[in-house]
Amino acid sequence: ELSADITYIGERCFENCGLMDVTFEKGAKRTGNPAEALIIGDGAFAGCTQLRAASVAAPAAALGEGAFAQCTALQRVALPQGSAVPDRCFAGCASLAAVSGTDRATAVGERAFQGCTALKELTFGTELKTIGAHAFSGSGLRHADLGACSGLHTVEAAAFSGCGDLQSLSLPEG
Fold it and tell me: SS3 of 122, please?
């Protein structure tokens, strides 16, 4: 568990390390004030092949590109409240099966969940605006619910390409 006093995890800070679980404490500093926001740098935990769970559900947290890419044992993630899932954030996380907080996500970046073959179902909420190119390509998605995404205005090229198991996709009306 990392202290609420930490506000920045540098780029590639824990890359290729042996961490098994990462939890960001929900302390007093997580107030939503940008000066106190937790920022996880690009590739901060990339390649941590023993990492099984990550909880970054603290308010005002921001993830960097590829923050958890290639964490092949990662099974569960709790996303920050009201944030974007940046480019390649979970790319190559083949064991990722459960992602909470997608109901508050504002954007899904390019290749964010590419190759997440254990990921079977995702539901997004009203705040989702964009889905980047190849966002879910090659994933194991069977069901994707975008029905509540009334502000969704962009789904880029090949967002769901290679999702051979995709059985249902709910889109917003209009």
Answer: strand
Average pLDDT over residues 91-95: 98
* Radius of gyration of the chain from its Cα atoms, rounded to whole angstroms: 15
- In the predicted model, is pLDDT for residue 26 greater than 80? no
The shares of helix, strand and coil residues in the chain, as percent rounded to the nearest 5, are: 5, 20, 75
Statement: the pTM of the whole predicted model exceeds 0.70? yes
| Residue located via tokens 């954030």 | 89
- d(CA 72, CA 92) in angstroms, rounded, equals 7
Q: How far is residue 146 CA from its own chain's centroid? A: 16
Can you tell me the distance from the alpha carbon of 117 to that of 114, in angstroms, rounded to the nearest whole number?
8
Spatial distance between the Cα atoms of 38 and 20, rounded to a whole number of angstroms: 20
Which 8-state DSSP code applies to residue 32? S
